[in-house]
């Protein structure tokens, strides 16, 4: 057992957040994550209507009785949804942990969160955004560094530096991610002062992860060098697996193509087809540098328990050094 | 006390290497570092003749009776020196710890190192170089990640990922650097499995560091965002303080200027003038992202002891979590 401020606040067993992933973090996967003792985080952005979201939340609640969070994606979207309606459904369904993600903290929803006793977690990729969220009343912030799969922010700060820099600027608990695939990474960010570790990419290679086997096998083969940064030209830097689709996005960026064409090439809808059909060049996939540290496809439960066992062994070893 | 394979091998008190810095790591500074219980590393590249180097080594030995290393720089140089003569002087003066740095391990010197009972440490910025050095007989390798001040390698892998990836590929001890400014960073890389932490940038802001006060004050003011990567176009990526000189180098790179002009703009000779005279725009300075975590100018002894105290407190805290 490793108890931290965050495990205590959320009532979770392990100081691990299972990163919210679009078109992956469905109710079943988020529930599987929470059932391990970590915090599962369901994505809401795939549910286009309040009714669809409500159905998903009802399913989520039926699948786990452990604490579980729901993500509200505040990044610009190709096809925006009416976020306030999503928030209302979450509150109506009694969701008690909401993770927002994006550069801007969600000013207008905060009073609603507070009125409903929601623990509000904001995820971002920079100290200034974290400070802003804390000043607006966030209970916890997550920061992700340069190694991260998905949004990396515009300043390219490694997790080893971003984590303590963020902690120094805040007086609320910080959860750190970007490059964590095993107990070594968890122990490292706890040593940096994080109150939990955020793990994303590592979860792609689990039995329950709802992506095609072809992609899971490709993840196993990938090295630490097999990611790239796309969409820097649009000020929306994302680290992704360096496949043909990523190369296509980079080509479009280099040729100063119309922004919409670039966004379309990187669209989640294409990734979804890839996840479902297993054609590995159709879409982009958010993958962090820690992909090179993945060597098997366990169940989520075995993964999280193994990571925590390794974390504990490392702490034991450090204290005997 | 924290004992690791590396502290045992080298007979040093603390698992900290004080990074070798050109035009800074003179005998007096390297000796001051070793006297703290960490490993000081003297640079040899500033000494252009065997006689000058011999004089420096004699001075070094007179200043400390603690283990101390000497660096042999194998990166391409504007004005190459005859390295074999430097090696012979080091061996002749009884130097027992030699750090080589560069992409290529120094094949031809290895038998000399072995014959003279030298502990050979190779410093590099990638797993493949580390593996090569280990296969050639290196006793210890140092790897530095994306956050590092100075050479960062061509693959941009964060320290949090590069460290475990390197350890997994080797069966010799690994020392990790890149972004470490305090006990949090030291504890983190020990948790990742490193046998010591390499600290460079943090040492710039110490009383003994032979650089101008203006630069020390600028270092104190710098944030984690105040570095940039130069010389990528020459396949010689370096992270430096983002001053006018760095911007000038980037401009030259963007305008596809002749390589020699770029190298000259980034030359150590210009940095040396800056260190001596305090004009902060004359030259480039290798500075890592951890610069944003520096808030005072202690003695080297107070710095290293403070870092180790913090490291020990963190380990204690982790084991009580």
Structure in words:
The structure is a homodimer of 321-residue chains. With 321 residues, the first copy, chain A, is α/β, with parallel strands linked by helices. In chain A, the strands form two sheets. An eight-stranded parallel β-barrel of chain A has the order 1-2-3-4-5-6-8-9, surrounded by five helices. The radius of gyration of chain A is 18 Å and the shape is globular. Chain A has two domains: 231 residues, Aldolase class I (TIM Barrel); 77 residues, no CATH class. The mean pLDDT of chain A is 95. Chains A and B meet through α7, α8 and α14 of A and α7, α8 and α14 of B.
User: What is the domain total for the residues of chain A?
Assistant: 2
Helix fraction of chain A, binned, reads 40-55%
- Stated plainly, the CATH topology of the largest domain in chain A is called TIM Barrel
- The count of strands of chain A amounts to 11
Gross morphology of chain A is globular
Q: How would you state the average pLDDT of chain A, rounded?
A: 95
- Note the main sheet of chain A: 8 strands, parallel, barrel
Percent strand of chain A equals 5-15%
Number of contiguous helices of chain A: 14
Rounded to an integer, what's the Rg of chain A over CA atoms? 18 Å
SSE string of chain A: HEHEHEHEHEHEEHEHEHHEEHHHH
- Uncertain regions of chain A: pLDDT < 50 for 5+ in a row? none
**Biggest interface in this structure?**
A-B, 44 and 44 residues
Strands across the major sheet of chain A, in which order? Answer: 1-2-3-4-5-6-8-9
CATH class of the largest domain in chain A: Alpha Beta
CA-to-CA gap between the ends of chain A?
Answer: 21 Å
Structural class of chain A: alpha/beta
Can you name the CATH architecture of the largest domain in chain A?
A: Alpha-Beta Barrel
Oligomeric state: homodimer
CATH 4th-level superfamily of the largest domain in chain A? Aldolase class I
């Amino acid at each position: 057992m490793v108890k931290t401020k965050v495990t205590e606040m959320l009532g979770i067993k392990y100081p691990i957040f299972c990163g919210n992933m679009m078109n992956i973090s469905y109710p079943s996967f988020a529930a599987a994550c929470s059932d391990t003792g970590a915090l599962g985080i369901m994505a809401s952005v795939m549910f286009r209507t309040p009714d669809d979201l409500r159905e998903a939340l009802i399913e989520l609640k039926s699948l786990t009785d452990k604490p579980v969070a729901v993500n509200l994606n505040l990044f610009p979207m190709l096809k925006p949804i009416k976020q306030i309606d999503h928030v209302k459904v979450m509150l109506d369904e009694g969701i008690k942990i909401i993770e927002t993600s994006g550069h801007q903290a969600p000013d207008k929803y905060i009073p609603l969160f507070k009125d409903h006793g929601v623990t509000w977690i904001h995820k971002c990729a920079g100290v200034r955004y974290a400070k802003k969220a804390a000043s607006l009343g966030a209970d916890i912030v997550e920061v992700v560094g340069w190694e991260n799969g998905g949004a990396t922010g515009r300043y390219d700060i490694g997790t080893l530096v971003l984590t303590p820099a963020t902690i120094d600027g805040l007086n609320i608990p910080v959860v750190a991610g970007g490059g964590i695939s095993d107990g070594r990474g968890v122990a490292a960010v706890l040593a940096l002062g994080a109150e939990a570790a955020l793990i994303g990419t590592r979860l792609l290679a689990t039995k329950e992860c709802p992506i095609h086997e072809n992609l899971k096998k490709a993840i196993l083969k990938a090295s630490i060098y097999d990611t790239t940064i796309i969409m820097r030209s649009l000020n929306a830097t994302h680290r992704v697996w360096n496949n043909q689709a990523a190369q296509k996005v980079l080509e479009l960026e280099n040729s100063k193509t119309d922004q919409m064409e670039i966004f379309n090439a990187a669209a989640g809808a294409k990734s979804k087809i890839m996840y479902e059909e297993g054609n590995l060049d159709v879409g982009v996939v958010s993958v962090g540098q820690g992909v090179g540290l993945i060597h098997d496809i366990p169940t989520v439960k075995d993964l999280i328990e193994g990571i925590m066992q390794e974390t504990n062994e490392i702490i034991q070893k450090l204290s005997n050094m």
